[in-house]
Amino acid sequence: MAIDLRNVRFHYPQQPHQTVLNIPSWSLPGGEQIFIHGPSGGGKSTLLNLLSGLLIPDAGQISILGQRLDQMTSRQRDRFRANHIGYMFQQFNLIPYLNAFDNILLASQFSQRKNTRVLHDEIKKMLTNLNISENSWTKPARNLSIGQQQRVAIARALINKPQLLIADEPTSSLDPINKEAFMALLMSIVSENCITLVFVSHDLSLSSDFNRIESLSDINRLEHST
Amino acid sequence: MFAKLALQSLLDRKGSVVLSLMAMTVSIFVLLGVEHIRHQTKESFSKTVSGVDLIVGARTGSLNLLLYSVFRVGSPTNNISWETYETIASSGAVKWAIPISLGDSHKGFRVLGTTDNYFQYYSYGSQQRLSFSSGGAFHQVFDVVLGAEVAKKLGYQLGDKLTLAHGIAATSFSRHDDRPFKVVGILASTGTPVDQTLHVSLQGIEAIHFDWQQGVKRPGSTITQSELEKAGLKPQSVTAFMLGLKSKMATFRVQRTINGYAQEPLLAILPGVALSELWQMMSILESALLLVSVLVFVAACLGVSAMLLSSIRERNHEIQLLRVIGAPPYFLFFLIELEALLIALVSCIFGAGLLAASLAFLQDYLVSHFGLHVSVNFLTENNLTLMVAIICASALVAIFPSFSGYRQARIIKH
Fold first, then answer.
1. Does ipTM come in above 0.90?
2. Is there a domain that residue B275 lies in?
3. Residues of A in contact with B320 (CB under 8 A)
């Protein structure tokens, strides 16, 4: 299993009496692409932060790619995330003052990948494949169009060859044409590289690209926790 | 990549960073400047005279005697009679004596009347004797030997003629225009007040004041310069004199004897002791100056700290993104520390550059107005240590915003 959650419960320290997530059991096999939908404020981002190890549960087990995140130290989770998990947001995916190339390079700095010529060549190849013209590589990220920024974000998320890609409403800021192109590109990349994809959005029109669709309310059984 | 990230981040906030940089630059300039001038002044004063066991003058404060006799600062209270000088100079304990007669000037530079002993025995720095860059000591009544700075500033060469003015003001109305002196020697640079002094014989001083009374030339005087040269003038008085003793052991005994000299009220001082008194007096001012410059620096550091702290909130998305790609919270701590260090480092470079330029620009002014030889090379071990301390202090003050960044990195927004 790429993802395996057992009896996971979570609340934010600021709201100790309000359980945000209560997941008795949920798993996702490796290489599968899942679309999770749910209303805003339903705990989607919290779930993704738990899957990426940015948050740790109050109780329960979280296994990602066979490793127990809940048993790792903070530093181990950071390393694990850098090496195995790619992450995309709906916006602010890039450091605005760094150029496209450096944004991707920066993501590799925290993984086991060495800053070599091979890595640089790989970044250039990725940017070319993502249809980002060479003159845009050295522009600060804030000077790129939203569509370009999201494509650079894909490259940034994939540079460390992650086995799990987490996408948190990455198309929200895109217009319909760019949205369609982005989804086609993303799905082809994850299929080619056999990457497990967890895609969260409230836009159900995007679900057609996925072989598994779930509502967050089906995963998160809050009624049992109260 | 770490350094590049810090640098690019700072460049992205040019406006506030430049202002912080300017504040830091000015504070470092002040701090380094005060420290350098303080150090140089002390060094310059300390090396002005060496090998002199006692300085003797008319009874006054020991600091006043030291300042006017050695540093040409201030004015003597009275003169000493020539007989008194001869009596003391010829006593058994005295190895050599250098009489000095002050009170005249040339274009703002002090004129010192003395004897050959001055060139033979006066030493500065680490017992270095005076040497001539050209010419030699005076032999005639109207010969003058110039200090290096006087010759350089006024463009005098051997054989040039110059006249002296009565008094020490830069512009004098009582001039000895009818009795010009001929430049016969130029001293090599010493980095001491000697460089700003014109040296003439005591007979020369007597000659220009021969027919003067109460500081004014007697009307109707007809004596010529050649007559004065042949007159075999004997000095009437001197301003002060320096003594070298045969035995250092005798210093206090000779000092006591001179201080109790019955014929004339005299004061004998040990230059080293008087200098330490001067430092003691100056130390309050020094400490006050240093304190003010340190406070200016602390204010600038706090300014940088406040700027970095306010940027943390703006950089929330950046911090979250770094965390998502695997940056541990302490990465953010060190990133902000590095930004503070970069600001401190660049400020140090700018501050040092500004100081070097200012010193080069003001060097002549300090020499001519305060007799201070301040070297442009301020990169002494002391100042380099200070710069390291500045950078360390910046890092220390940056702990607050860095820790704030660290805390921000630990908080995951929902």
1. no
2. no
3. 92
CA distance B115 to B127: 19
Q: Are residues B17 and B81 in the same domain?
A: no
Provide the number of CB pairs (under 8 Å) joining chain A to chain B: 66
Contact check, Cβ <8 Å, B326/A79: yes
Full pLDDT tens readout for chain B, 414 residues: 788 889 998 898 888 899 989 998 999 998 888 888 888 877 777 777 788 899 999 998 888 898 888 887 777 888 899 999 999 999 899 999 999 998 888 888 889 999 999 999 988 877 788 899 999 999 888 899 999 989 988 999 999 988 888 766 655 556 666 778 999 999 998 888 888 899 999 988 888 877 766 666 666 666 666 666 666 678 888 999 999 999 888 899 999 999 998 888 999 999 888 888 888 888 888 888 888 888 888 888 888 888 888 888 788 888 888 988 888 999 999 999 999 999 999 999 999 999 999 988 887 777 666 666 777 888 888 888 888 998 999 899 899 999 988 888 887 654
pTM, two decimals, is: 0.73
Torsion sign (Cα): B370, B376, B380, B386: positive
**Domain boundary pick from B203, B234, B269:** B269
Q: Among A18, A44, A91, A95, which would you mutate to test the B interface (most chain B Cβ atoms within 10 Å of its Cβ)? A: A95
Q: Which of A20, A75, A106 is the closest to B328 by Cβ?
A: A75
- B28 & B89 share domain: no
Domain residue limits at B374:
2-45+282-410
Assess A95–B contact: CB distance below 8 Å, yes or no: yes
Q: Residue A144: which CATH number?
A: 3.40.50.300
